[in-house]
Design brief:
Helix content is 3%, strand content 49%. The protein is mainly beta.
Length: 128
């Protein structure tokens, strides 16, 4: 079974940094694009980033471009989301998800409900 395990959330002050990890198992890692979404109270799910290990090209949502960086470690079947210059608006539960057979360019346009696999979320809280 495909499993995704997100970790690395926490509480930071505005301007700080955090690194999230998404460890994948039960899959051929190269066949999937791994994405990050977030859900904040009262808001809809927001696409944050995605990356496919075999092309390593990450794509980002507009609100995080230039601040967040996704990377992939094929030796660990893990995707990372490095978050810098965090803002209170970044406060949310962050989820990693996987979708099979798409490039990151294709996957970034796929609505969250179409992604096939999800991990449990990790809370990120940014205080002002």
């Amino acid at each position: 079974d495909v499993q995704l395990q997100a970790s690395g959330g926490g509480s930071v002050q505005a301007g700080g940094s955090l690194r999230l990890s998404c460890a994948a198992s039960g899959m051929i890692f190269d066949d999937y694009t791994i994405g990050w979404f977030r859900l904040a109270p009262g808001k809809e799910s927001e696409f944050i980033s995605c990356i496919r290990s075999n092309d390593r090209r990450a794509r980002y949502g507009e609100s995080v471009k230039g601040r967040f960086t996704a990377s992939s470690d094929n030796t660990k079947n893990t995707v990372y989301l490095q978050m810098h210059r965090l803002k209170p608006d970044d406060t949310a539960i962050y989820y990693c998800a996987a979708i099979w057979g798409m490039t990151s360019d294709e996957a970034m346009s796929i609505p969250s409900e179409k992604w096939g696999y999800w991990g449990r979320g990790t809370q990120v809280t940014v205080s002002s």
